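Q: How would the structure tokens look for this protein?
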Amino acid sequence: MTGIFARIVGWITMVCLFGILSANAQVRLEHLWTIDGFDRPESVFPSEDGSEIYVSNINGPSNEEDGNGYISRVSLDGQVIEKKWITGLDGPKGFVADQGKIYITDVKHVAKIDIASGEIEGRIVPENIGFLNDVAVVNGVVYFSDTGADTLYRYSDAGGLSKVASGPSIDGINGLLKDGDNLLITVMAEGNLLRVDLNDHSMTEVGQGIINGDGIGILDSGGYTISSHSGEIYHIKNATETDLLLDSKPDGISQNDSTLMGDMLVVANIRPGSVTAWKVVPDN
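A: Here is the predicted structure in token form.
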């Protein structure tokens, strides 16, 4: 029995060690495709069936209510399916597709759009808006960030609108992403990635060393990808190790919101007005 027990312990240790090594493994980016010709594209998100990618286009000043904003549809191989699919928005930025709806920040509100009809069905309107930025849905509850007011909101039809957190601890809150029953958020002032427990609203730092963090991706092998509107793409290996995968500042290319679909990382580039796809591969 002692020998069997020792072998079981050894096997468990090897599995745990393999998981740690996988999460800490180096990765790199391989360019897949780039689509040009968008109008200040800020955010990307997959359709619910994963067959295509939606792109929000500000198409004007970020905070102007001009009705010029729109959402595009593109294919997984980098072809424009429909450039102006949903129109009549103002400055659309971060969004999510969930249960047949799109929830998207649009200057002074979060618009709820029916995907089948393309029509706006409702609006979530907070008070004292700073700069509405990104959206996530967890278990039917809509969460969205106000970067200018350092605030994370939650909304449900049953519970209405309320604040999850606000203040210096989330100074410059930007990107949001569902992580099981929890929520991941990027905080630009501290340059970190936090996991929010949505039961008690406690926060745990799961990554650091990022500049202007925006889009978040969860790697199957462990760790995270983070895109930065100032032009960087990062790989967070663990809570204390972060690698810089790309710096496009010298080329004048921003890396705004992003979405990770398996090993394909798709990024919106407000500058120069493109959407780029990368393959995340092991760097052996």
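The chain has one domain: 2-282.

Confidence is low (pLDDT under 50) at residues 1-21.

Upvote if useful.
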